[in-house]
Amino acid sequence: MLPTFRPSYDAIVVGSGPGGASTARELAKCGMRVLVLEQGGAEPLTGTVTQMAAMAAVPGKGAFLHRDASLLVAGITAGGSSAINFATAAPPPQALFDRYGIDLAPALAQLRAELPMAPLPDALVGPMAARMMAAARALSLDWQKLDKMIRPAACRSGCWRCVYGCPFGAKWTARDFLDEACRLGAQLVDRARVLRVVVQDGRAAGVEVEVGGQLHTVSSPLVVLAGGGLGSPRLLHSSGLGPHHAPFFSDPVVAVMGSVDDIDGGAEVPMAAGLSLHDEGVALADLTLPQPMYAAFAAQVGRVDRLFAHRRTLSMMVKIRDEIGGKVGPRWADKSLQASDRQKLARGVGMAKAILREAGAHHIFKSWHFAAHPGGSVRIGNGVDADLQTTTPGLYVCDASVIPEPWGLPPTLTLLCLGKRLGSRLGQEQTGLQGAGTKAHENIIAPRGIKITELR
């Protein structure tokens, strides 16, 4: 059934990942008429490889091959990539945002009070993660449990479905906030492909969207793009409001794997613990993968001798903070590793191999690099101001594309903070303007914060 749109809305949010869902929830809390448009589907998560592939492995939609034989993936579904991430809750680096006049501490405190966010209890740390933790600590590395956005009471040991889409309600995703926004009156339309932002008299006036093969123009004086590090710059370009090509970061990841003889497992919550070398831009964590993903990595690098060793293989993630570069184009993404990126990966891979050897692993090998955190393509101070507003009044961006500097962190919690901050401010200003009954959208769009230097 095709959706019925209102003649106009108080706000339109394009995308329902952490940034979009958090913004929509705050706007709905303030009584605003909110429309959320999601390109992917909103079917319940089933935890199957088939559904995950449809959300994140369709070439040109959720998966992109670019230089250096790297695979770049993004979740095209309700909740965005939070539906298929590893549920790691890294706090926003306050010093970074302080440089741009942004205080996320109040939003972070509120989110910590309401979301499941803590290290896994020992009973949910699998034997592979525990083995790697012990080995890292034996090498005097500061290997610690990571905060996870997981409800332990609903989680189960011996499960690997975080990355497939948890069907048990154990993993928190942005769908939780999306559901709350809808309970508060927001309207969600899924499988909706937004084509462009409509601009009238120099300011945002709505969007043009295709649903079920039909084209609609939906009106609103506020539009928030939350289509992700690839989607938002593309929408800006297609609307004539952004550059043809946008540089970005991708947080490259390599999986380093080695077999042991005394563990028979292969199914456990990934990224239970790890190590972050902030100054070096390198992070490591255990990364137990589902068997099909493991087999794909082994085959990718010609290690057919290890295809059937999944249940005995320790797998470790090496992730780096890469330099911003490359291009997000209208239908593609292209980014090569720079020399400094390769040095970071080599440093991390060397550490991972040493840990695996300490853990008693043999037949150690590594995958090609892949990436799942594209961002920095509409950066704060470059594409948006400190309030996440573009140079077009009434048009905002709230997703990983606004992260202002090279990253290297799980972005979910940071995007939730940014969305909460943006939605609360816009909602409060809208409520105040409605109460005053005059100059209804002019103050909302007044530029504040730092100056946008340029779009490039």
Automatic annotation (TrEMBL):
InterPro entries assigned to the protein according to its UniProt record, in alphabetical order: 4Fe4S_Fe-S-bd, FAD/NAD-bd_sf, GMC_OxRdtase_N, GMC_OxRtase_C
PROSITE patterns: 4FE4S_FER_2
Segments crossing the lipid bilayer: none
Record-annotated 4Fe-4S ferredoxin-type domain positions: 146-176
Coiled coil: none
SUPFAM superfamilies cross-referenced by the UniProt entry: FAD/NAD(P)-binding domain
Keywords carried by this UniProt record: FAD, Flavoprotein, Oxidoreductase
Keyword Oxidoreductase: yes
Entry annotated with the keyword ATP-binding: no
Family that this chain belongs to: Belongs to the GMC oxidoreductase family.
Protein name stated in the entry: FAD-dependent oxidoreductase
